[in-house]
Amino acid sequence: MPRRALPKKVLSEQIREEIMESILNGDYKPGEKLVENTLAKEFDVSQAPVREALKSLEMLGLVSVEPYKGTTVKKFGKESMHEYFIVRSQLEGLAGRLATENITEEELDIIEDLLKEMIDAAERGDHERRSKLNQMFHNSIIEASHNSLLISVCKNVRLGSWSRITSKYTTMNAKEIASRHTEIVTYLRKRDADGLEKALHKHIEESFEKFNKNFYADDED
Known about the structure:
Blueprint: H1 12-24, E1 33-34, H2 36-43, H3 47-60, E2 63-66, E3 70-73, H4 78-102, H5 105-124, H6 127-143, H7 148-156, H8 159-168, H9 174-179, H10 182-190, H11 193-209
Antiparallel strand pairs: 1-3, 2-3
């Protein structure tokens, strides 16, 4: 499969994003093997950054790595996806609650600007831009919690990347996705911890309900 050339000293994060995009686009199918040295040749890099990228994708839950079997694209069932949404709901709900106490006016302005840009991108039909802004929006709320441990946990489970996945595979239209974030900003601006936590829980639970069933594998190991 042809792939754009990357610099020899490419970061593993760039390779991770490339492979993740290929998985989400269906270029790599569930159950397909990802061979380290083959990928290294495709990216024109050593195997080290590829190995790191695959480890990151394993943590994200997009691939599985087994001794003597190698790395394969993971098959997703509805139950395994539900587990992710439950964890994401609780982590982001907690981040939102803490953000109402710790967010600065500058951070709040940035989040409001992200929302405006997200709605604008949706109206223009720029789905890639809207998806990236959606990821930045959720990450900004987590950062605004100012809780270093929570921020680290969210980064380790790659909540931002999963936000892109749910945005890509939703059955909602782009404008609906963007406008759903307005309520979140309203509660954040009010510093309403209970309201914001409930709004984030609702937001993420609805994302699961609206998740496109075509993403799921027919069966789950």
